[in-house]
Design goal:
Elements lengths: L9 E3 L4 H33 L6 H27 L1 E2 L2 E3 H34 L5 H31 L1
Antiparallel strand pairs: 1-3, 2-3
Length: 161
């Protein structure tokens, strides 16, 4: 039996393509940091306005979901950017970036459902503003889920081209 040669761990880009990809990843990282900052401001404002209302379970679930989704987003984009070396693309690095982004996406999307459900359950227990708190923080989870989807799509496209 003949053995198959191992798949190459790097792939060349067009001349100058590596610099373009690194700039694109830098722009994406800048936009992602801005999105995380907006989500952070939203969480802080919801926490301040609902202080003492008893919505701490919704806030706790939201903070856990949003921290994990934000960390996955920033790590995925950073890992994707470091996978571009000169005019070479490291395939394992892009796969790691894709996996991190997929995990962040799932946490963001599914976490948004859990956040809204927690807010709804607290609203049924007559806790003031719990549903509004759950809806706002659920929207923040969706924002991070969509951002992670974009990072995943870029990494997948680069691996398969």
């Amino acid at each position: 039996m003949t053995e198959q040669p191992p798949a190459p761990s790097t792939r060349p880009t067009n001349p100058g393509g590596g610099a373009i990809l690194r700039r694109a990843y830098a722009k994406l990282l800048t936009l992602s940091v801005a999105a995380v900052a907006v989500v952070l401001v939203l969480v802080i404002s919801v926490a301040i306005t609902s202080a003492g209302d008893g919505t701490w379970p919704t806030l706790l679930v939201a903070v856990v979901v949003l921290v994990v989704a934000s960390a996955c987003l920033l790590l995925a984009i950073s890992r994707g950017r470091t996978a571009v070396n000169g005019d070479q693309i490291e395939i394992p690095g892009l796969r790691a970036s894709s996996s991190l982004a997929r995990i962040g996406s799932l946490v963001g999307w599914l976490g948004a459902i859990v956040i809204v459900a927690t807010g709804f359950l607290q609203n049924t227990q007559d806790i003031r503003n719990a549903l509004l708190c759950g809806l706002l923080l659920g929207a923040a989870g969706l924002i991070l889920g969509v951002c992670n989807d974009g990072a995943h799509r870029i990494a997948k496209r680069l691996v398969s081209f």
